[in-house]
Structures are given as C-alpha cells and as structure tokens.
Write a structure and sequence with these properties.
750 residues; TIM Barrel
Length: 750
C-alpha cells in the first residue's frame, strides 16, 4: 500500500528489513536470514569499491533469484563521478536498466539527471551521502524525482519524526553497523591524507587512528557502532519504510547473524518483544563489531559516541602478537578460535591492519583445528604484521554458498507485458519484442466477492514456464469486476507462455536502454557550455563577520538573523540546519533579501528550497555540496543556481573538463582551510592535533550551531586556472601562509 493510499493515523506494516550484500554469498546469506531486500554494487561507481562486489552476470542472477523469492534488490551507484566518466556512467545505467533492479541508490546529481531523463525505468533512491536532513531537503528530493530518501545518520529521533510528517516520500534509516563520524557526503579526511576518497568508495578510515594533542592522545574521531534493536517499536510507529543494516565490507556470517536478530524482533508479537531482546543481543554479539550505541538518535548518545580511549578496531579482542615469524605470527589467545574464523591484526597506532581467514593454525607446535583460551598458537600469514599488534576476531567460519551459487540458473530475458481483461476476452501485448498480440476468448462471470485483481494476474503471469524468458514490467487494465477461477487462469497463463516459447527466438527483445544511450549522447554533444570572458571573472572572498579583507565580493556565514544583518555582499548558508532551526534561517534569508542582498552560497541541497523564487538572485553551489560534472551543474540550474564551485577533491584536468562542459560558470576554491569533517558528535579534544605521520590538524567546536569541524594545518593553495572564478576562504586562514598544500589538484589521486 502506498503512502498516498493510507488512511490518516493508520501505521504501515512491518518496515522493510534491508541488508548489505558485499558479495553474492552475502546476498544469499541475507535472504536466508530473512532480509526483505538487499543493497549491492558492481565493481565501479559504488561507495564500497574495496569490497568483493558483483559481476554484471552474477548481479542479474541474484536479481532474478530475489524476485522469485518475492524480495528486492537495490543497486548502488552512489559515488561522485568526474566529467570524463560520464559516457561510462551512461553505459552502466543502460546495463542496470536492462537488469531490472527494484531501485538505484545514487549520490551524484549528475547521475540522478541522467537516470531520470534517459533511463526512466530506473527507480531512484537518494543515498545518505546526499545529506538530506530536514523537510526543506525533502522538498528538493521530491523535485529531483527520487522515490525514497536515506536520511542523514546524524538526525535525532525527534527530528526524524518531524520530517516524517512533512513528506510522502519513502524514508530509510540506518539501524545497525559502523558509523561515520562526519556528516554524510561531507568528509574529506581520507581523501586529504592520500586521495582515498570516501566519496569514491575508497575510504581508508583515518577516523579510526590515534591522534596526539597537547593534553594527551587518543582516538578522537572513532565512533561506537550503531545498534537500535530497542528502538524498533519507535521506528515502526514513526512510519519509516525501511530499516537498513550497514556492512557491505562484512562477511556473510555477520550478515546472517545481524539480519536474523532484527528479523526475529520485527516479527515478534508485541507482548514478546522485550523478552527476545536478550536473545537478539547474543546473536548480534557473534557479528564481532565495536561497542554498541544509539548513534545520533539521542543527544545523550551523540555526546558520548566517541571515547578517546577506545581503539577504533572492530571485533573480539583475542590477544597481542608476541612472536613474529617469516611467514606468520604467534599470540596467546583469550578466546576460542577455529579454522575458518577471520582475524585482523591491528597496530597500536590504530592504522588499518591486515585481515585474514585462518586456514591453518599450530597450537604448541602441532597442527590444530581449534585453539582454546590460554593456548599459544601460530597463524601462517604472508602479510606484514606489527609487533605487539592486537589480534581481533572479526568473523566466524561460514558456509561459502559455492553450491548454491553454482545452481543459480542464468538470467532470463524480461518481457514487458500489457494485459487487458474483459468479461469475454483477454489480450496480451509484449511491448519489447516482435510478437503478435495474443488473445483468447473467455466467459467470466461477475464477481460477488474476491474479484480478480491486477496483483493476482501479475503474480500468475510471473510464473513463466521458460528457461529463456521471464516477466518484466507488467501493466494491466481490467474492464469490470470478474471472478476468474484459479484453474482456468493457470491454463490461460500456460497457453500464453507456450505461445511465447514457440514463436519468440532468444535475443529478440528490444533494448530501450539503447534508445536512452543515444538520447544522452546527442544531448551531451548539444550542451552549450558557459564561456567566461577574462574581464568578467571576479573573485569572492569569504571572511569572518565584520572582516575587512579586500575582494570584489565578500561572503560571510549566515546561520542566524544576527549574522545576516552583518553581511556585506554575499551570504553563506549553513551546510546543516536541523528542522528546529529552519524557521529561523528562513527569517534570516527573508531579512537579507529585504536588505538588498542578492548573492547566496548554497552548501547543502536543502537551501535551494529556502531560497524559493530565485528571480534576480545569484546562487552559487559551493563546498561541501559536490559538483564534479556538467550533468550535476545542469541539474542545479533547474533550481536557480547561477554558478557552481568545482568539487575540492578534483584534480586540475577534471576541473578543466568541468569548466569546458558546464552550462554554468565554474568557481575554484583557490585558498583557505577546507573543512575535512563536520559532526554533531561530542569530540573529546579541541585545538591542534597531529597523527603518527606528523600531519597537523585543528579541531574547533562552534557553539552557534553545535557542530565540531576538523581543519588541516596546511592552507590549501592552488594556482589560478583560466576561465574560472576564484574563491578565497579566509574564515579560518590568513593571507601569505607559509605552510600550504594543493590537496588532490596536482596529484591525480581522486
């Protein structure tokens, strides 16, 4: 039942339980444990590129297998893409449209535009990386054409309840697994330290490392894991459509245990729910994660989410490395270990350590299948292991599903059917294959009860007795209310599919995606990029309130009415505005416009809704709102944007490619200290810190918005690029700094 069809006050049924699938075996484990749906990705353009992921052939098999079970598959295309990658993205979208997933999970505005305009069969879900966190943002999401929004993970339950009342869009929230400390999509930390961008699926998790400050050292950015089993009744009452488990880098044993625990609680009768929490906790503990928390769902939990003395590693601590060998390491275990278990050896620094599956072990010098607490064992390993490293158990032995995967049949071609039913005739037209309309005469009686429905017909015709063809999209028109005996309906279905098998050759289906590819190619070639004349390129200088630095345009952060009143020429709207502060920000914008301010800098998509009718306004899409390609710029132009800042992670050639194709003028962040991460979590440190490699940073808490931001010690400074506007950020930097860097601009890492 859709949200539009629900009566006021009527709660939806059990929310969907959505599980991660980082591999085909993980997908089977999720379905076996009771997941209603999985989310998974191909090898490229997904936010977990470090995982095993799927080949196109295997993904098509899993989708068909899921649909046979009555489950769903959501495919992830949720990374940022560069201008040069747009043709490959178009081909990927065409491939995915042919696969027929239940939805596509996306982050990049350019991908959203391409999918909506050229591959309309794809249903779109907005990734949490898009940062939607208030009702204004959901207005924008609806205009983008998405059907579901995965909410920002740093919203409280009260804030979720407030936005739930404001939209008919489906809402999805995370309920279990590892948490990012930064606002989703706004983290540059890993990218800054070597080009491993979280926005490209390559995060190296520097938040899990140890850092050193004047008042001591610790794991200042490493949050506890999320576990919300006790919140299930509240989330159900809010009307959340989907509960999402994090973990596409996890093994199938984690997926099976975690999904099983949440499935048990979701299906438990109300009177038995509390009594089953203990059993669920025992199941979840075998998933080998970090200490549990309620994440950002309560202010109290957010305040204690990060503990500086808690090592960022996940798993059950089993001992310390006390022996290094040429091809292995030894330790005294404090836990039972078995062949097939997975271990990670974590350096004391918190840096990422090697992970391995135990295929051999030696206890007291002899081969063994298990080790008991207190025994010294040696594990063969060809990876470098740190002396004194902490040995964590991160997974248990599990079925590899080799036989089950081998038994999956090859994917079938999908036939899109249009069925019309009357009292005396049924006709079926195959919309995507060269097959004549099939018709059969009937004699159906009017239904006094239980009339045949479109859902019944779709379910019946999905039972295709063919190894080559399967039901694709189904459209049905029923001219009346009829009783269709089950036996007679089955006979009609068999007769139709026999006709298909006899008259349609394999490979005959038309591919609508080819049409979409050609439309995209033509539209891309016809783009009219903006050409900026040198004499028109004016700089913008972002300054602190009352700042007097020179610049043809002066921009100031505008979080409230007071700051707006101090503006010079341009207002920088906040990257995060919780629901409770929206009215205040609306008032501030209104006052600014009344005062004659016509330039606004949008750092998050929600702000586009607040600006409303933008006639006469100059609107710049600016960091941390990422713009990497011309399709994203084109989409922003729909909402009144008049300029875009090239995403700060881009290298020089990618900025030039964006400049040469964008319909909007492009701006470059040339100087300043960019925010590397921003969070609502209580960070147990402030001021200057450094990592074990000597990289310096600064932690600053802003009492005005309750957010903590991390800045690099080095000032970002890059040369002028012809044909683009300049942006200088002096909010946290001074001119002529001696310590500077160029981020990814000259490295080619992104």
């Amino acid at each position: 039942m859709s949200r539009e069809e629900r009566a006021p006050g009527v709660l939806p049924p059990n929310p969907e339980l959505l599980a991660p699938a980082g591999s085909p075996a993980g997908a089977l484990a999720a379905f076996e444990a009771g997941a209603d749906a999985i989310y998974a990705g191909l090898a490229k353009f997904n936010a977990r590129e470090r995982g095993e992921n799927f080949t196109p052939e295997r993904m098509a098999q899993i989708i068909e297998y899921a649909h046979k079970l009555g489950r769903k598959v959501y495919l992830t295309l949720n990374t940022l893409v560069k201008e040069s990658e747009l043709p490959e993205v178009a081909e990927t979208l065409a491939l995915l449209e042919e696969m027929g997933p239940d939805a596509l999970l996306v982050q990049d505005l350019g991908i959203i535009r391409m999918a909506r305009e050229y591959f309309p069969k794809l249903v779109l879900h907005a990734s949490t990386q898009m940062g939607f966190h208030n009702s204004a943002g959901l207005e924008v999401a609806e205009k983008l054409g998405v059907s579901r929004v995965v909410l920002e993970r740093q919203m409280t339950l009260d804030e979720i309840a407030a936005v739930r009342k404001s939209t008919r869009l489906e809402l999805e929230v995370f309920v279990h697994g590892a948490l990012c400390v930064s606002l989703s999509g706004a983290c540059l930390f890993s990218s800054y330290l070597g080009g491993y961008s979280g926005n490209r699926g390559k995060c190296k998790q520097p938040c899990r490392r140890r850092y050193f400050g004047k008042n001591g050292n610790g794991f200042f950015f490493s949050p506890q894991d999320l576990c919300t089993i006790e919140l299930i009744p509240k989330l159900r009452a809010l009307g959340i459509e989907s509960l999402k488990i994090e973990g596409r880098l996890k093994q199938p044993d984690y997926v099976r245990q975690t999904v099983g625990a949440y499935r048990m609680l979701l299906d438990a009768p109300e009177e038995e729910f509390r009594g089953r929490l203990g059993e669920a906790r025992n199941m979840l503990s075998r998933g080998c994660g970090r200490k549990w928390s309620l994440g950002f769902y309560t202010k109290e939990s957010a305040g204690t989410l990060v503990s500086h003395d808690s090592l960022g590693a996940a798993g059950l601590l089993c001992g310390n490395v006390n022996e290094l060998r040429e091809n292995g390491f030894g330790f005294t275990t404090t836990k039972r270990l078995f062949l097939g278990d997975r271990l990670r050896v974590q350096p004391q620094s918190g840096d990422e350590g090697p992970a391995l599956t135990v295929t051999k072990m030696f206890v007291e010098g002899k081969p063994a299948r298990k080790a008991l607490p207190g025994q010294q064992l040696v594990i063969p390993c060809d990876k470098p292991v740190a002396s004194g490293g902490l040995v964590f158990k991160i997974g248990e032995s599990f079925p590899d599903y080799t036989k089950e995967l081998a038994a999956l049949p090859p994917p079938r071609e999908k036939l899109d059917l249009e069925l019309k039913l009357s009292a005396n005739r049924i006709s079926i037209e195959v919309r995507n294959a060269p097959l004549a309309r099939w018709e059969k005469e009937l004699s159906l009686a009017a239904a006094s009860s239980h009339p045949v429905t479109a859902e019944t017909l779709e379910k019946e015709f999905a039972a295709a007795d063919s190894k080559t063809f399967a039901l694709g999209r189904f459209h049905c028109e029923i001219a009346g209310s009829y009783f269709f005996p089950a036996g007679e309906l089955k006979a009609v279905r068999r007769e139709f599919w026999n006709e298909v098998k006899q008259n349609l050759a394999p490979g005959s289906c038309f591919r609508d995606s080819a049409v979409g590819l050609e439309k995209f190619r033509r539209a891309y070639l016809e783009l009219a990029p903006f050409r900026a004349l040198p004499e028109h390129l004016r700089e913008t200088v972002a300054v602190k309130p009352n700042g007097a630095e020179p610049g043809s345009r002066k921009a100031v952060r505008a979080s409230n009415v007071y700051e707006i009143s101090k503006l010079t020429t341009e207002a920088i709207l906040p990257e995060f505005c919780p629901e409770g502060r929206l009215d205040s920000l609306r008032k501030a914008i209104r006052n600014a416009r009344n005062a004659g301010i016509r330039r606004f800098r949008v750092t998050s998509l929600y702000a586009l809704a607040l600006l409303g009718e933008s006639d006469g306004l100059e609107i710049t899409a600016s960091t941390p709102l990422p713009v990497c390609n011309s399709m994203a710029a084109l989409e922003l132009s729909r909402f009144g944007a008049t300029r875009v800042m090239a995403h700060i992670e881009l290298e020089k050639k990618d900025v030039e490619a964006l400049r040469d194709h964008s319909v909007l003028p492009v701006e470059l962040y040339r100087y300043g200290r960019p925010v590397l991460l921003v969070t609502r979590a209580g960070i147990p440190a402030e001021g200057e810190i450094r990592d074990a490699r000597g990289n310096g940073f600064c932690i600053r808490y802003d009492r005005r918005d309750g957010l903590t931001r991390l800045y690099p010690q080095k000032v970002h400074s890059i040369p002028r690029l012809s044909g683009v506007y300049d942006y200088y950020d002096l909010q946290n930097a001074h001119w002529n700094s001696q310590e500077t860097g160029t981020f990814n601009f000259e490295s080619g890492w992104f």
